[in-house]
Amino acid sequence: MRSPYVFAAVGAFFAGSILWNLAMVAALRLFRINLSFTLPFRLFRRREPDLLQAIHGKSINEYVVISGLLLFACPLLAGITAYDFVARRFIEHSTYGMKNGALSVAWFALLGLCGLWSSLRQWQHSRESGIGLAMTVILVVKVATETMGALAAAVLLTPAALGGAFIYFGVRSIRRADRRKRTTSRRDRGAESNFVAQQFVPSEQYRAQQAGMAQTLMASGLNSEQIEGMFLLPVDPPSGEPKRDL
Q1: pTM above 0.90, yes or no
Q2: For residues 80 and 126, what is the distance between their CA atoms, to the nearest angstrom?
C-alpha cells in the first residue's frame, strides 16, 4: 500500500519545487529582472543563459544569490519539505517535528554549497542549466530510502553513484581530448597550407651562390639557355651573347 503514497510524495516534491520557482520569477520581475515564467519548467540545460541576460550589468554576487540560492537551493528544499510532509503523514503516520526540521537545515546547507558551486561554473562558462539533475538525484535517494531502508539504499546507490561518476568523467575526458586533437589538427593544416602557398623570395647569399655556379657552367661550355633551365634566377650571359628575358 505504500506505492500510491510514494507517488504522491514524488508529486508533492515536483509541485513544491516548481511552485517556489514560479513565485521567485514573479518576485524577481518586480525588481526588473524579467525572467520568463517558463523558466521553472526548463529543468535541464537551457539553450540561452536566461538569468545572465536578465541581470546584465549586475555583479557575480547577485547572480550567485539568485541562481544558487533562490532558484536552486530554496526550490529543492521546498520540494524536500513537501515530500517529507506527505511521507511522514501518510506512510509513517507521524508528525513533522523538530527532527525533520533539523534535517531540513542540513539539506539546505548541502544544497546551498551545491548551488554556490553550480552558479559559479555557470557564470564562468556563460551556460545555465536547471535543477532537473539535482531533483533526479534527490528523488532517487528519497524513494530508495523510503522503500528499501537507509542501509539497503546506501549499499545499492553508493556503487551506482561511483560507477556513474567514473563513466561521466571518462566520457568528458575523451571528448575534451578529441576536441583538442581536432583543434590542433586544423591549426597544423592551416600552417601547412600557408607554408606551401608562401612565395619563395631568394636571399642575396642564394643569388650569389647561383651566379657563381652559373659562371662555372658557362666556363665549361654551356650556353645561357641551358643554364637558365637549371636555375631559378636569370643568368647574365658572357660578353657578346644577348641576354634573355624570362
Answers
A1: no
A2: 29
